[in-house]
Predict the structure of VCBS repeat-containing protein.
Amino acid sequence: MALRFRKRKLDDTRCEACSVFDVNNDGIPDIVSGSYWYEGPDFTQKHDIGEVEAIGEYLDDFADYPLDVDGDGWTDIVTASFFGDSLRWRRNPGPAGGEWETVAAGPLRATETLRFHDIDGCGIPEAFANEIDSPQAFFKLDRQAGGKGVPGFRKVVIGKEPAGHGMGFADVNGDGRMDIVLSRGWLEQPEDPYGEWTFHPEFDLGAASIPILGIDVNGDGRCDLIYGMGHDYGLYWLEQGVDASGGRTWTRHEIDGSGSQFHDMQLVDLDGDGKLELVTGKRYRAHNDGDPGADDPVGLYYYKIHEAAFEKHVIDYGPAGEASGCGIYFWTHDLTGNGYPDIVAPGKDGLYLFENMGEFGEEPA
């Protein structure tokens, strides 16, 4: 039985990134997207964060990750810009309120978006940027003893060649260490993540999604990869195998060829059965009019994974402005407290909330 979702359009803002966290420390999760935060639990009260520059059709905010950067007990936002030249974080003003200060925190260029993983086990996730024309790197947050004081982000370069379009985390070789998957191969994590990473140029995915996901799709004990075409048609999984000589092989399988611009995706247990579903959709006007399928209807979908078969379920589909895709950086969180993860979907066509009612929930409004 398919899950039921109640759709709400929260705003007409055209930011493509969002997140969920407790902005004002009242114990209730709020929604953040670009220039604004929306106060929970009903998200009807809108508060300014500060002006985010509009560049053409883009709002120059390509991630909204929640992290207490300065250790003051108030959650800040870590973000990136494709058009700027630095990692940035926005300082939560706390009880004083007012505009959030934006702080430049490290060199970046041509950055599609950020993804976060605690690569060194310190308890604080590192920021991994997909700088398509630069070698892969991550940013380590350094704070003074006790977690307070003036923070800084230290850039650690782990690749040698341009990263290309596409990036994700997966334990490709099953050694218990998280590797970095890029569009033209994968970087093997050494015992010391600050040491030399080995690049394996084993495939070419083209302008792949961010993230590329790692999961054992077919149950053979090997890590496979799921990716979409960020600026073309197609959603695929890459099967990891072994040839007669013991070498690693990769075989591509189509999941869904009907849609385009699968730029962001997540693996989430939407129905509470202990198994992960693939959640993704179209990034509306990813390159404005430049991508194949740019004028097609937008959609948001989840796929049940059954032993290498993907069963598609449509959450939303239709003309932009009536239906929603999922932008460049969507978020899942149980906002209603019913035990099911909801979906917050940003995009150039507005900010939407899809409340997950479960399999036996009431009909969506």
Observations:
- The radius of gyration is 20 Å.
- The longest strand covers residues 248-260.
- The chain has no helices and 30 strands.
